[in-house]
Amino acid sequence: MPTMADKQLDTYIAEENLPYEFCPGCSHGKILGALSDSLKQQNLDPSEVVIVTDIGCVGLSDKYFVTHAFHGLHGRAITYASGIKMQNPKLNVIVMIGDGGCGIGGHHLLNAARLNTDITVLVFNNFNFGMTGGQHSVTTPLDSITATTTLGSTDAPMDIAGTAQVNGGGFIARATAFDKDLPNVIEKAMKHDGFSLIDIWELCTAYYVVRNDFGRKEMMGYMDSMKMESGILQETERPSFQTSYKHIQEQASQQERMNGLVLETNFTSDLDRPVRIVLAGSAGQKVVSAGNLLASAATLSGLWTSRRADFPITIQTGFSVAEIVISPEPVLYSGIIKPDVAALIA
């Protein structure tokens, strides 16, 4: 049966939704065009591509593509994408996120890179929160004027590509929205087995450009002054989390199942009603262990049982409580309001 990929698409842009809703001169449209060109080069079936966005100007972008789309909370796009990829590893999952989203969800970025989950992250990095009025973000250059740093930013700017690189990201690149080879770099990122991130520098013409006299020339000069090279910065051979997990599953399927936790009935019991037991004492008095033994004995006698324990988070300090319910019928509620037996150890 023929698929969508059997027919070459001229564009992956949903032209019925044009024109873009971005500000005049905004670089977002250039990046969307580069992504469309990259998808066209790869001749991918749109039904096998998922674009994930969150809040911000870039969050307007998913509706401009003929692919699947998922739009979620600010800074969480990488987590949504990771879940989608785990559910269906065959999908091509692309995250479009701003520098603001990378700051809000920075821990997601770090862990996705460490995990090496097989998604492609395109960072629309325009050095400020453009949608909400041009507030400073994690990548705002030092001394820059923004709505929230009217006398100049005092925060050290975050190197998004460098951060992903040192945390084990498989494919890391830095580019600009004006790079003619951006579609090719996106294709390389998507074909890499593992976490891929392209930190794409661009211009926010509504706020950052006008407040800082910051155009394309100044942006390239800033990149040089910060010694942040453009191009592919890292490309490792470490397999993706999905590839590694599949291998682990195959290994686990060949091992014998654990049977030590199965308690077969060896005895009989005349118990005809539920018995609720509370054991309490101090840490180190084997209260929880006694509860485990009691529950195990009941199970060996063919009874239904539940066991709960409560103790402070610090080991060997404070109180220790075990609650055990033993019944000839299934235990539907494990809480004990009024115990039948209470044993307190001084």
How is the secondary structure organized here?
Blueprint: H1 28-42, E1 49-53, E2 68-71, H2 77-87, E3 92-98, H3 99-104, H4 106-115, E4 120-125, E5 128-129, E6 135-136, H5 160-166, E7 171-176, H6 182-191, E8 196-201, H7 208-212, H8 216-225, E9 231-235, H9 241-253, E10 275-282, H10 287-300, E11 304-310, E12 319-327, E13 341-344
Parallel strand pairs: 1-2, 1-3, 3-4, 4-8, 7-8, 10-13
Antiparallel strand pairs: 5-6, 7-9, 10-12, 11-12
Helix pairs in contact: 1-6
**CATH architecture verdict of the largest domain:** 3-Layer(aba) Sandwich
What is the typical, i.e. mean, pLDDT?
94
| Biggest sheet descriptor | 7 strands, mixed
State the helical fraction: 25-40%
Provide the domain count: 2
End-to-end gap: 76 Å
Broad CATH class of the largest domain? Alpha Beta
What structural class do the secondary elements suggest?
alpha/beta
Tell me the total number of β-strands.
13
Measured by DSSP, the beta-strand proportion falls in: 15-25%
Shape: elongated
Low-confidence stretches: none
Cross-sheet strand order for the largest sheet = 2-1-3-4-8-7-9
CATH topology of the largest domain: Rossmann fold
Total of helices? 10
> What oligomeric state do these chains adopt?
single chain
CATH superfamily of the largest domain: Thiamin diphosphate (ThDP)-binding fold, Pyr/PP domains
Tell me the series of helices and strands, N- to C-terminal.
HEEHEHHEEEHEHEHHEHEHEEE
